[in-house]
Structure formats: structure tokens, C-alpha cells
Design goal:
3 domains, alpha+beta, five-stranded antiparallel β-sheet, 459 residues, six-stranded mixed β-sheet, 13 strands, 14% strand
């Protein structure tokens, strides 16, 4: 028999419990166990007036933003509509059935004001990392560093040379332009002026790192290798120097805030520059499980630098023919001159090279052989020795965990293009996305406790 709906649409009273309509296995219910924003109001207290009309609860806005980044809802207009209609979202945001959803413009005003001035999004991210540590997901033994290029909210067709723009024109008074001009005045840009900049987001850098060129920023992750928890994130220009230097910033910040210093750092060859390896080995005491950035290998059949034997005590190289290369031929004990590239040049004697039977294999087009040795070569040698160990091979495969985080960021969370402009806007998006990733990881890895049935547990 065909059924027929008999509900009375004009019913005035309902026995409805919102908590019962959110399934126990729902992602937001599992995330809610680990999200504690009780300290957020105290953190923001100095940025609110003690008088006047009450504002929108900052915890409500943070919870709504986390919902958006957990479920790939990038538009704040759409996020407000989804929270208004979805019972699970309302439950997570503590709105109930009749709670009023804030207007989308509230997010923009608070982001460019209180949230950014107080670094509230960084505060929330740090609180989630501390929760990961309490749950035992952060081991602290090994960290991995990597960067991923993220397209900016800028049209690649609208680039123009910086010297052709009159920045005093009122039409170039957007927030992103003001941030660019402030960074320019402070000398905070990482390199010389680019050939062209975007008029909508001048801080975005023109890059062709992943194919056709576009305007972009880079998100840098420092991830713990225990369970792949992101312990720090930093937004930088899409420039190799900025990405590498962010490693120092993040390692120092994690040490200061969480008292964590890894025993080893995993990364690709981009992070294997001599100054970076020296900083890790000599200053931080961290074992670099990183390939050495080395261009000394020759491909023309002549001897490479690795064919020469280094004598630390005598401060000299010995060539395959048994001759010595010194920094100072006339005064062998004197220190060599350091070049602008932070290297010391070791030279063989012209007389030794002229009479050597191996000259055609060593320096056929020069009167004598020269070798440039970095002042950080000792740290590079440490990295080379580590690269020959079984632990390095294990680290090589573990490094994929941080690469998987970027795949999850772009494919699952749908953060494949920035929506906010400026370096500060990119930093806000990357912090929220990393917070959502850590919350989802805890929800996935930590078992849900059994429901409370009211039955007393026997002692």
C-alpha cells in the first residue's frame, strides 16, 4: 500500500535534540573532541573594547572557518549559507536551531583587524599542535621540511614593470598594494625588483617552477615524522631563497614555543646549501638527512673534486698524481683568502702540473688545477657521511609524508588556489588549512571513546 505523509506542517512544538542528529562517526563530532578554544577569548581580550555593543563571538568565527577548510568551502558567503542550513555545522559551531549566523563581511573585518593584529590564527594553530603533542602524535625525533607553490589570486595577463606604475595613484590603494609598498620601504623583499608585478597583488611572485609561469606564493611545512603532524607552517614568496630561509624561522619557532628540537631534519637538495647545512650541524646540532647541493662533479671526463683527497691536519688537497694543492703556496701555514662565494681557493704548483702525466685528465685547458672549498665544507662532509647510512635511506622514504600533506591540501581540502591577497592573506589561509589538516589527522588516528551508557563501571 502506498504511504502518505501525515505530518502537520503547522505544528508549534517539537521535541528536537540537535546533538542526537549528529552521527557519532561524523567528522565534526570527532574533531570537536580535540578543538579547545577556551583560551581564545583571553588571547583576544586586549583587542576588544570593554564597552559598546557585543561583537560576534570570535570562537564562533573560528569554528566556522575550520568547517570551511575541513570541507573545502572556500567562499565565506557560501560558508554562511551552509552553516545556516546544515545541522551538523550548526552543532559544531554551537549555534543550535535558532542561532543567528553572522554575515560574511564579519570575517573580512575581523581578519584584517583583530585576528591579524593579535595573530589569532597562529594562536589557534599552536593550540592544536599542543593537543597533538598531548595525544602522543608528535615524536620530536625527526622533522621534514618542504615547500609547495600555490597560485595567487592575481591575473597573469595583468603584469606590468614596477617602474612603469605610479603607486601614488588613488586607484592603486588596495590593501594588497599598501602591504607591498610597506614591505618595499622596509627592505623586506627577498630579492631585487622583479621584471613585472601584478596590480592586484604586487607581493605575489612570477614563477615557472611547476610549468607555465603564474603569480604565486609558497607554503612551507615543517612536519613531524612520527605521524605526519604539521608542527609549523610559513608563507613566503615563491623564491628558493625565501623557502630555504623559512627553515630557520620555523625550527627556531618550534623550539621556542614547544621546546622541540629534532635529532634529524629531512629535506630535498634545495635545502642542502652549504650555509644551511652549517647552521644545522654547527649551531643547532641537527643531523642533516639532506642531499648536498654540489655542482663540483665534472662530466667532461676530467677529475672532479671528489677525486682529490683532503688532509684536514695539513689544510691541503692531494691530487691523484700525489701532488699537493694549497691555499697559500708561498706560506703553506697561512690561512687562505675567502672569496665572495664563501670559498677558499686551493691551487697546485704550475711546475707540478706542467710535468704531471695526468694533466690531460686533470686540467687540460689550464696551467694548473684549482679547487674551491667552501668554508662550510665540514658540515657538507657530515651530510655526505650521513647519506651513506641505512638511516638516510629510511629518511628518504619518510620524506614522502610531507609531500602527501601537500597533496591532501590541494586535492581533499581544495586549497589549490589562494583566495586572499598579500603575504599576510596567504599566511592566514595556510595557517587555517594546516590547522584543519592536524584536526582531521587526530580524528582519524585516535579512536572514538565508547558512548556513555549510564552503566556504572565495576571497581
Amino acid at each position: 500500500m502506498m504511504g502518505q505523509q501525515t505530518g502537520d506542517e503547522t505544528q508549534l512544538f517539537y521535541a528536537f535534540n540537535l546533538d542526537e542528529y549528529v552521527p557519532a562517526h561524523h567528522l565534526l563530532r570527532r574533531i570537536d573532541r580535540f578543538l579547545d578554544l577556551s583560551k581564545l577569548r583571553h588571547h583576544l581580550a586586549d583587542f576588544y573594547s570593554h564597552t559598546g555593543r557585543p561583537s560576534v563571538d570570535p570562537e564562533l568565527m573560528i569554528r566556522m572557518l575550520i568547517v570551511g577548510y575541513c570541507f573545502g568551502i572556500r567562499s565565506e558567503r557560501r560558508l554562511c549559507d551552509e552553516v545556516h542550513l546544515n545541522l551538523g555545522y550548526r552543532w559544531f559551531c554551537r549555534l543550535g536551531l535558532e542561532g543567528e549566523v553572522p554575515d560574511h563581511s564579519t570575517f573580512s573585518r575581523n581578519r584584517h583587524g583583530r585576528f591579524r593584529d593579535s595573530d589569532a590564527l597562529r594562536f589557534v594553530f599552536d593550540e592544536v599542535v599542543r593537543r597533538c603533542m598531548r595525544e602522543g602524535l608528535v615524536k620530536g625525533e625527526g622533522f621534514a621540511i618542504d615547500a609547495s607553490v600555490m597560485p595567487a589570486n592575481a591575473n597573469w595577463r595583468e603584469g606590468i614593470a614596477p617602474d612603469e606604475i605610479d603607486w601614488s595613484d588613488p586607484k592603486y590603494s588596495s590593501r594588497a598594494v599598501r602591504e607591498y609598498l610597506a614591505a618595499l620601504d622596509a627592505g623586506a623583499l627577498p630579492e631585487a625588483a622583479p621584471k613585472k608585478v601584478s596590480l592586484t597583488d604586487p607581493l605575489a611572485r612570477w614563477t615557472a617552477a611547476t610549468g607555465p609561469a603564474f603569480y604565486a606564493y609558497s607554503t612551507n611545512y615543517l612536519a613531524d615524522m612520527g605521524c605526519g603532524v604539521i608542527v609549523d607552517v610559513e608563507a613566503t614568496h615563491s623564491h628558493r631563497t625565501s623557502e630555504v630561509e623559512s627553515t630557520r624561522t620555523m625550527i627556531d619557532r618550534v623550539e621556542a614555543r614547544f621546546n622541540l628540537t629534532p635529532e634529524r631534519l629531512l629535506g630535498d637538495s634545495v635545502y642542502g646549501s652549504a650555509p644551511m647545512l652549517s647552521w644545522l650541524v654547527d649551531e643547532k646540532g641537527i643531523a642533516p638527512h639532506i642531499p648536498v647541493w654540489d655542482k663540483s662533479t665534472r662530466t667532461d671526463g676530467t677529475f672532479s673534486r671528489s677525486d682529490f683527497e683532503w688532509d684536514e691536519a695539513a689544510d691541503e688537497y692531494r691530487c691523484p698524481g700525489g701532488k699537493t694543492l694549497r691555499a697559500r703556496l708561498r706560506h703553506p701555514g697561512a690561512p687562505g683568502t675567502v672569496t665572495r662565494a664563501n670559498t677558499v681557493i686551493y691551487r697546485a704548483s704550475e711546475l707540478d702540473c706542467r710535468s704531471c702525466a695526468l694533466k690531460r685528465q686533470c686540467c687540460p685547458n689550464a696551467t694548473r688545477r684549482k679547487i674551491a672549498r667552501s668554508i662550510h665544507e665540514a658540515a657538507r662532509d657530515v651530510a655526505r657521511r650521513i647519506a651513506k647510512t641505512p638511516q638516510y635511506q629510511r629518511s628518504y622514504y619518510e620524506r614522502r609524508k610531507v609531500e602527501m600533506l601537500f597533496a591532501h591540501l590541494k586535492c581533499i581540502l581544495k586549497v589549490d588556489r589562494l583566495r586572499l591577497r598579500g603575504l599576510s592573506g596567504a599566511n592566514d589561509e595556510f595557517l587555517l588549512a594546516a590547522t584543519a589538516q592536524n584536526l582531521r589527522k587526530m580524528a582519524r588516528l585516535i579512536a572514538q571513546p565508547p558512548p556513555n551508557t549510564g552503566i556504572p563501571v565495576p571497581v
